[in-house]
Amino acid sequence: MKLGMVGLGRMGGNMTERLRRDGHEVETYARTAPERTAGSLVELAGALDQPRVIWLMIPAGDPTEHAFRTLLPLLEDGDTVVDGANSNFRDSQRRAAEAKLKGVFFLDAGVSGGIWGLTEGYCVMVGGDEEGFRIVEPVFRTLAPEAGYAHVGPAGAGHFVKMVHNGIEYGLMQAYAEGFELLNGIPDFELDLRQVAALWQHGSVVRSWLLELLEAALAEDPALEEIRGYVEDSGEGRWTVHEAIESAVPVPAIALALFARFSSRQDESFAAKINAALRKQFGGHAVQATKTGDRAS
Length: 297
Hints:
297 residues, alpha/beta, 12 helices
C-alpha cells in the first residue's frame, strides 16, 4: 500500500526501508533529511491518494503535536494518522477524539525494536478504532515479525501498553545492572563478565535479548571504560510511575529503577552529604572533605 512517513531518524528511516523492501510505496518527509520525497507536510499530504495513511515517527510532545495540528486540516473522511512515537496515552486519547470529529482515524502505535527492527522486525502495539486498524494492517504486518503486532484496545491503549512496556524495561535493565555490579565487585574470583552474560543465555531463567546486548557491549569494552554511567530517561518510566500512583498500584521495582537513573546523573549527591553530616553530628563519625578541603572528623 501507499503511505506517508514523517520522520526519518533511527526508527523512521529503518521502518521506511523495511516497508519498501516488502513492496509498499512510501512518501517521506523530514525537516533535515536529504532523502525525503516531500518538502513539507502539506506536500506530503498532497502526494497521497485517499484514503491517505500518514505515519508520524518523530519525537513525542511538541513535534508530534505540531505535525498533528498541521496535518488534520489537510485530511478528509476516511484518512488515517498513525502516531508511532512514545506519546503520552492521554494525549493520544485527545488527538483521537479531535480526529474523529473530521472522520479521520487516529491510531496510537507503540513500537519496540530499536535499531535492530530493520532486520528483526518491530513489536507494534496499536490502539484506536478497529476499522482504522484494518486499513493499516498490511503495514503492521510488514513491520512486525510473526505474531509481533496486535490491536490492543481503543484510543490510547497502544501507547499505554508501550508506556508500561518501557517501565518494565527500566526494571529489567536495573536488575541486570545491579547484578553485574555485584559480580564485578568481588575481587576474589576475577570473573569474566562477558562469559557470564553468554552463559546465562543458555537455559537460564534470566536469559533475554537484553542479556545478549549486554554481552555484545562487554565484548566491545570489557570494563565499560569508555562509557560514563549517566543514564537518561525519555519520559515513559515517569508516566508509568505516575499512573501507578494515581491508580494505587504498587510498582516498587520500576519506581526504584527510575530513581536510579536520576541518581546516575549526579556528580555529587546532596542527600549523601546530609547523611554524612548527620553521622558526624550524632556519632562523631569521620567524614570525607571535598576536594578543596582536608579530611575532617
